[in-house]
Protein 1
Amino acid sequence: MYSEINNQLMRAATMQNCQPSIIMKCLAGNTLNNKTIMKKLFIFTITGGLLLSGFTACNRDFDTRIDTTVVPDTIAHQASSQNKVLYVVVDGGVGKVVTAQSVRDNVYPNINNLTKTAIFSGASLTDDSNVEATTYADMFTGVRKAKHGVVAASGANKLNQYKPFIDNLSAVNTGFKTSAFVQSDFIFNNLVVNAAVKQLLTSDQAVQSATVDNLSSTSSSVVIAQYTGLKKAGDVGGYGPSSATYLAALQSFDTFLGALLNAIKSRSSIRTENWVIIIASNKGGKYVLGENEDDGSDFSDTERNGFVIISNPNFNLDYFAVPDMREYSVNGTSPEELGPADRQGSLDSASARIYNLGTTGNYTIQFKAYITNRSTSATIPAILSKSSAASGANPTNGWSFLLHAGTNTNWSFRVENNIANTGPSYELGVWNTFTAVIYDSAGKRYTRTYLNGIAGGRTDISNKSLSTNSSLIIGGGPSYGANSFRGRIFDIRIYNTALPENYIVANYCRTFVNTGEPYAGNLIGYWPGVGENSREASEKIFIDYSTSKRDVKFGAAAVWGGLNVSASANICPVYPDVELNKIPFSVDIPRFIYTWMGIFNVQAYQLDGKLITPTYRSTGSAN
């Protein structure tokens, strides 16, 4: 039964030079490259890298299988009038614990069986406030607190504008009926108000009984149940994997879930119905991570570590592991060697006008560079600039980052007429983050430099113009000894604000700016310059991911090559939006329900939740 999967495991391990004793840990460290195999293998692994063997059980699916061989992976499955939803909200369900325990089919048979054919994530970040009402609102409206306005269990909100999904379902089709059996006053009074059937109950057993009765006797399109046992157990005995109280509650939840699934299987109309089971935690719970578990990222915030299971017998397993940011690296291609004039990137003067920084105003320019050769003796080459012809070692107009001569380890940010702000020393052969902040203060204007968060001097640049008709140039510019340095550059940012020093110190090492981060809205130029953010095709460009959309073009002679930037003293890789957006979050669930129920025109709901699309498996073995 598992021979094919074991063979794939061994092949993948061999390709990655993984030792048999640490196969799963090794492969998990290469999740992006082994995603397909990891999906298939997850149900045979325990987090931490142990391969399970000796499985003999093969649980049956909760529902009859639909033949997907004729129309695989089409909207036909998501537009049937017989589509149904069971949505189970789990309070305090920690993603890392649930995913690790879900492989134990002899202890958690129902969770285990559902995750075999599911979109399954143990890395679903919940709202950073950890306020229960906020997390519930996310799960029912599909928008975040900036829109729905729920920041506490009481007080003003915008739920009349950003309505729960059950309200929108019934508005589209009065035939949609929702039944809800919950224990939260906030959910009952705010998020399921218009359910056809609703009950506010006081225990998981009461919710189970009411839900089973409802599933057995009514034709609701969506049935909602809330389980609170995990939160209660976590509050008393701790939330972590070492808490016997918490694991016992998880086993009780599996029994609770089994009763609901049996009720669905027992329906007289089950043969013509297409049920999707959605199970998601509103948030995780606080506990101390074990040794070497904390990677310092949001994924190690146990209170935000939720889980999502979206299961249907016709789905392939699509598993999203919790990434370890200590092992994550920035991968892709970028120009191999900057410095030579014909390998520079440039933005024409007309497009680059917004980077004329004038005589007043606050700005920050920041980039990461790996310098292999500073320059020849007594030269001061520019490495990033928007400046006019050099006057000795200085730009006549505009601004420029320059490396100092020969063995000198300093650098400077310079503006017109020999005004230089010298930065702290840097090393060759390592990644360094160069920052220049331009700011107004007390009627004057200053610039200050930083190298890897360490501040350099402050220079008065009052009445000096940082504007010029020249182009923006990456990898060079007018200077004394131009084109004599060698190196690589990525993660280039220009902000229309002066970043605070404490922010620079805390964040200089981060490799990406994700949507919603502080000061992301202040970017007027942002060129990540690697991976999906750079492109070598008919045009060699750095894509501008700011709202300015000014891509930088490189010369035809620029050689694109592989770039892998791992965590180091000066680099802390950030999980970029392009990867983060692949992980299903609880805020995505309402949009999935709309689609499953055949509602595709959801623009009016202004959803923050992304579209989750399952992949379908063909009929075959039901195991």
Note: Residues 244-265 form the longest helix (22 residues).
Protein 2
Amino acid sequence: MSTDIEIARTAKIQPVAKIAEKLGIAPDDLNFYGKYKAKIPLKYINETKIPSSNLILVSAISPTPAGEGKTTTSVGLTEGLNRIGKKAMVVLREPSLGPVFGMKGGAAGGGYSQVIPMEDINLHFTGDFSAVEKAHNLLAALIDNNIQNKKYSLNLDPRTIVFKRVMDMNDRALRDNVIGLGGTGNGVPRESGFDITAASEIMAILCLSKNLMHLKEKIGNIFIGFTYDKTPVYARDLKAQGAMAILLKDAIMPNLVQTMEGNPAIIHGGPFANIAQGTNTMIATKMGLSLSDWVVTEAGFGFDLGGEKFLDIKCKYADLAPSAVVLVATIRALKYHGGIAVADLKTPHPGAVEKGLENLEKHIENARQFGLTPIIALNHFVWDSDEEINVVRQKCADLGVRFAVCDHWAEGGKGAEALAKLVVDAVENSPSAFQPLYDWDWPVPIKIETIARKIYGASGVEFGPKANADLKKIEKLGLTNLPICIAKTQYSFTDDPTKVGVSTDDFYLTIREIEIAAGAGFLVPIAGDMMRMPGLPAVPAAEGMDIDEDGVIVGLS
């Protein structure tokens, strides 16, 4: 069987200028990054056109080591929609190097449902992650420089600083450290640490900005800490926002590439959904809706994380509503949630599929709490038995949800035509009645408990000592009306990653602390032992990668 990278190389890639022509974009307006990648200026966003276009959100059941194929399905569905005569494009997030070289691999789709050039997209692409990292770390440097230089000091108390540094690689050794050691010329010693770039507040701001001036304003609102006399300090107090915006002047423009079947694709922004909001930029989504009639986008991890944040945070900030929701599942993943070990997932086991359907059913229930009835896309593998597939088909019929078996990995758009037709039917005959889960003006604990109870199925929420102190700080800063972006394990509805499927026991979500992302415009309650700097697995994917003297890469997936 060919690998994803081998399949990607078989595609007849077109110059990106030809892809832009299909969208009515003049070549002179493109900012080219070689022949196959380009940035689109923001002037192509048409707010008048957006309401007449259809936004399709692709989410999934709770992730498993077996994988679900959410991005692959998003690309395949886009190909399928174009094959049945719809003007469609896919809008996705950019991959982070940490997962690419760690455990998850790339994020350009798979098989014959990929965005290309696959190697470029999965590596440095157009430099957006680097720009976010540099802008973020510029602010970090300015903070420590201000503490060091007493003449111009804001009197910032180092013990209160909450802004860490970032880098785009999984590196657990950087989570907590002491900086400024080595003498008075090296700064003031203090505790600090690193987050991964995907969790950077600058990344979140990029993804929730309307334009460059809005981005600059939001950067200025980043909360840093307090002075010794308890006055809050923001990035604007350091006059940092202008220089940081300069570093992001190109990164704010969405990136145009193509699918393997030559359809337009926009890839822009890359926050994770387990530690951030998990969706591409507001600008990219609006650009897609301005240039196409159908836009397929995905939100990271399961519907309880990326899906909920897409609907409760992004949609409200962007004044958008999805026309339909697709939930991706696989027989393998359902068997995993049904108690089957990873090594045995290719062995037919209809009973385990039946048990694992509890997880899918909970995600369906969650989508309906937003007024949305999802379409179920079963990402098909050759070892799936007919009996197992029929178990899922019957359950979907019992629940009154549309269901399609998809072969887009092996067949590209042809394998997703059935799904595409169901999506069109849902949009035309079952209009969305989208409504957010909570009101932003509710008290912060109530908003957190609403997500925990309704989406995760928790009996309640337990706030730790630091979380309670953070609640008081949020009240003092006047930020209680911000939405909630919970950082939580993606593998479970609980805060315990080992509890897969759906917990039958009463459980309480434990909130350890609440980070303040005043610039991005949300609060980040951190559940359980969740870290905002991931670690590499015991055997990182990097160990299987290589490059030859001709520059041919192997092992990238």
Note: Residues 157 and 186 are 17 Å apart (CA to CA).
Protein 3
Amino acid sequence: MVDAEYYGAQLGFPRVPRAVAIAHYVAWGFRRGMSLNPLFDDIVAGGELPEVLRVPALYAYLLSERETVRVHPWWDAEEYGREHGGPGLEHAWAHRDAEIELTAAGWEMRMPVAEVRRRALRAASTWRRHRHHPSPAASPAAVGLIRPLQARDRRYDAKLRQAAARATVDRVVVPLVGVDASQWVSAHLLAHIVPDLGLRGESRRVAWTEMLRGATARLEVDVVVALDPRAEFTDDEIDALVVVAREDAAAVPAHLAQDGTVDGLGAAETGGAVPWSILSGHPSEDLDPLDEIVSVPLLRSLSVAAPRAELRPMLQRPEVRSAASFARVLRERLPVRVLTTVRPVLEEPLLVFDEPRPSVGTDTRDREAATALIEAAGFDVREWRGPTKGAIEPRLAWRRPHPDAQRWAIKTCAPAGQQGAIWGDVHFARGLAAALRRRGHSVVIDAYAARSRPTTYLDDVNVAVRGMDRIDAVEPGINLLWVISHPEQITRDELSAFDGVFAASTGWARRTTARWGIDVQPLLEATDTDVFRPQGVERTDEIVFVGKARGVARPSVVAPLRAGIPVRVYGPDWRTFIPHAAIAAPSMPHADLPRRYESASVVLNDQFPSMRREGFIAIRPFDVVAMGGRVISEEVDGIEEIFGGAVVVYRDEAHLVELLRADPDEIFPDAEHLAEIAARVRAEHSFDARAAVLDAAAHSARAHRPARPLR
């Protein structure tokens, strides 16, 4: 499996001893995406395998079900392996005269493995030097897309695939800015498959304007769209930017920062050494009242769409040496318009671009424009304060739509962006937020990294949904804590800082109140009745589990499979514990869950051990039963009383297997009785019911604690 010549090419040598290649790869190389085999993309394969940030991907691959691992972005080794009766990678490497099919976004090419290796070797030999690769000559197009990639981007193949798809119509240039070895080699291989895809090698320390200048040089287009390497965009979002740029404007998205807050709705000169990033640090919901397109004084983004006829002369000006200097030149040439509904998250830290320090300024000319945007978002400016990190910033007050309205902030343990989208905490928060809005309140949702954002002073009530990580109370609002999991981590000190404490376990709430003398009220988890409502889907005979592996062999999944009972598992990180054939999908869109729960013969459920011991019931049974579904669960205090016969509990693994081998129609109530239980659960255990309890608690806490002055 080890191609020492290929690894040596990545190091800049003609060849290295095989043992040296292996040692270097294990100690350091895998962290830069270097690979021991030209058919094995370390970054892509690593996305399929557990613990890839700790161990080399090739090592994890060799210990996995090799036949099922995606090892390359443009070659389907799994399908190839099925055709040849074994792991595709090993077979192809042993038969280098055999042809493999390379495909990307509708493009395809067949070539012998030996030719793939030759092209990979050629690309690898240029990686460290980051040689420039001019865009191929092509006929003019309407749109030129600049899609930079940076190192450590685990989603780089998706960005390249989108670039390849758009190359059928647009002129596309991909600057490879300080990228890792696998990214470099796979991008060059893609350029052989997609002849109109242009690549440019750039060093990590290149200036953003220099990268942009080089990428646009050969683009004969009407509009140029440059995207921030940290973010992913849908095609619709890119097209929306193009539409606005065609109106002789610079169009930019409303980027969200890595913590999910607004990165800056453009910028404004407000008197500080650097411009203020408008509404930076605000939850994304604060953009909702704004028009879909708003004008801002200054560019703040590394994503921009603009007419090429205007862009090229600006980039040629000698004073344009940084994003900040470009923004100042741009404002004199084009209006800057932000698409407030286009909100890509800057998922990663910026690891590239060497930006000179911006010049010091004290201009306050943009305060009026910034104030107008602030007021349109529903706030008033109390004063301008600072500087903070060089910027003069406004102190705001939230403008209440009616006297009883409160601004609520729901704080979760989930990350922002695509990572957080699959967390149950996010959907929990959205269900609660919708219920609170029906009670007349304004609600924002904070990812874990934004739990103490600088704009918390605007919030009247904070609800910390306590999952796997501690979320501290913040000033000056009312603070409510809702413990839904990991009770073993909770301390008396943590609870004592809150105005009200709730727990998704009646027993734990009672015991904790007695032990620490802090009033803890039971408040069970709930179901979002906007989503989980029967749709009349026909029931199948499938046994279903939806959830993560959580790094353990969860008995409700592993025991049935070990006994030969088929279970369809939806969730990540299961490779280590169950056969790949049992993994129906690594995730399931939340919108698809209701139909999946309603159609399943049985849905399996278990808990974290600490949750089971302390009587915490997970959200899954609430959602399944609300759909009229049937659940087999490990035993948790109170679960049978809450859900009637719709949840059947098992005592141990043998009992679980026995239940699954029985006819489910004999151990669960009939359809009419299940429908009655489902209606009761939706009525008594909805987020609307929970929101009423929290609203009353906030009102009571406010009545007993005078409002605190703004800091």
Note: Residues 687-704 form the longest helix (18 residues).
Protein 4
Amino acid sequence: MVDLHTSSQPKEDPANISGAIQGAINTLRAIFPKQEIDAHRWNSNYIAVPVEVTVNLPARGPVGDIDIRAAEPVFLLFHRAEYPYRAPFAYSNRKGFPKAALPHLNPTRKGVPASFCLHRGSLDTWFAEHTLEDLVQRVRFWLRDAARNRLIPHGDAFEPTHFIDQFGQLIFEPDLFREIISSANIASTNGGSRLIAYELLDQDAKAAVAVDGYAARAVAVPSDEDAIKHLQVAELLNELASKEEYKKLFKKRLFGLLVWAPPASISSSYFGELPSSLEELFSWGDDLSLPIREAMTSYLSGGYQLLGGVPVTVAIRRPKPLIGSSSNLELLTFLVLATGDHWPKDGNWDLAAEVNVADHRTPLTQSFARSLSSHPEDYQMAPLILLGCGSLGSRIATHLARSGQTAMTLVDHAKLSPHHMVRHTLGGRYIGRAKAEALRDELKEFFPEDTLDQLTAIEGSAFDLVKGDKVPQLQAHRYLLDATASSQVLNLLIEEPLPPGLKVVRAEIGHHGRLGIMSIEGDQRNPRLDDLQASLFHTAFEDTAVARWLISVETSRSGSVGSGLEDVQIGLSCSSATMRLSDENVALHGAVMSLRARDVVWGATAKSNSAGLFLTVLEENGSVRTIQKSVPPVHICAARNDPQWQVRFSASVVQHMQTALRRAKPSETGGLLIGMVHNKRRIVYVTGLLDAPRDSEGSPVAFKRGIQDLPEAIKNIEKCTGGLLGYVGEWHTHPAGGPDMSIVDIVAAARLKGVLDTVPLPTHITIVTPRGIYPHVFEPNTGQMLIRKASLYMVEVAHAARL
């Protein structure tokens, strides 16, 4: 007669069984038609349903005479309220089942049935896509593999202990603990122990009694000489943290133990059961040559028990390295609940104190973060300086840091205000602090084990970096990312010389959060931010989302400041408490921009020629799409007649004019230039052109541009771009001539200037020859020499006519 765990459990009243579990029982009856399937009460939360499964044993019997039988009693444990959303647990129903001889079991307390580990991930997730019959089949396969010694793949690795129920969370670096043990073993052949100082992370946890466990992080491994000092510091911190006024400033401390066996003590046993009391822990340690008893006695006599729980991490030597590790040291952590009635008395531990397995977590490091983010651990971001730590800048910095990239200098002159909490990544505890320094401190908390020397902050402005006393810090960086949404900063970055080799990127949000804009400069700053801005406006001809934005900007501008050709303010600044923009919009654009920024500034994969625009469009229907536009270097020319003026031609315009020159020669041809003018910088940005209208006339000695359809074309261009792009000059070719304007050109320019001066726009004539491109620019309300030349020419023409 087999002794079953469920024999002592009463049958459950059908009235107490949910419809879902009753359906599962009916399914099991169909799977096992010859068995009597009944439900047993396990406890107030679970119902047990025993069945007997057949096991396909090897022909010569189980490998190593392991006690797996052809018919194995098992039971499924159903959660009364949460089935079928929580998968049933599968247990052996046989009390003599060989727990200690098998891997791939979920360790249980002494006397508790063996728990089969059926899935390496979440069994609940697996069960969401599988049936109860699939689960039963998994149990059969598990028992079959156990009989054949195939529960783990054959190889040079050892199966680590699996856990399903863990108590509290302890954070420490396993490699550090292993290094401590390795160093100690060099000088000794005995086992040993070390004191570990932990910082309590959950200040509101009932740490004095540890009812639910608690989260703690290892902060130090004191030497024997420094242990007393650490104890004094811990007692002081605990006293301060217990006071309401200091609760948020200080964290409590507690002490734990790291215990290891002698180098010669190697265990190949699997742990189907683990200790559940201090007495069992001591006996279990004795069996494994772990000096837990001695370490705990010394710990208590030294006065290190400050809180109700004692973390005890034991290192067990395995015959092979663990799966997923290069070490053969398996670390298991327990939490001894020596609290309440079990608090030590008269200098002795209460052996009845409860012991639970604690959940171990590895502290986050930059290398670990890169791994978790699916990035190579050895990839390093080139040094980046971030201007603007507001809502967008803080998100980009946070995303980069979370992926293990912290080579950043954060720059912002402002302090956090209450309204910033709507869109900023930082919480309310930083209100009143400088944005850059607060963000730096927050990001450093991600990686408590790393020094993060390259993560710094400057409470200053872009002006301090470019022209002030912080210039050396700017020179130490390879990339600059401007997230200020400031037109003043934009002008500063365009107009002031920056360190050679510095690549500039600008991130902004436009159109009330519907458009994210990332501008990425090219090598030697060509294309530059202003070139990219002009190219962005030209994108309105290609994408309706950009056109809608520019048209809305014109409508707003005309209603508030009147129409005109002034620059558009692209970015949205969060400095105003009246600005309307949701956190979701900023988060969306910030996440996409961070992905792109990482590609640009990541040292090993940075693309030096990756210049252009990267746009995120949030459509009115809620869908999201991206636009990536490569922008080649622009062709830069100083005006031949006035070097103070500069014309910056897009590459496509240059190519188009040169092609037109070749096709039309020996005759001249030409057309209109499209773009924008910045009078203050004295720059004409040419983003597009119009070919000669059909009513134009060209000959080897002259070109007369017609006007057919031009007014409508110019009007459509201005409408599509919200008036930001339009007519900026004339172009024509000199197939056999020189770069200078002919008398005919001068006369035409003088007449044109009389019209453009009233706008005012500069008069711009570009001459295209086989040898190059030669712009001529005349400022509004100037150019007397041009008028004089034209007048002299007209006098000569009149005189010739009389003759």
Note: The radius of gyration is 38 Å.
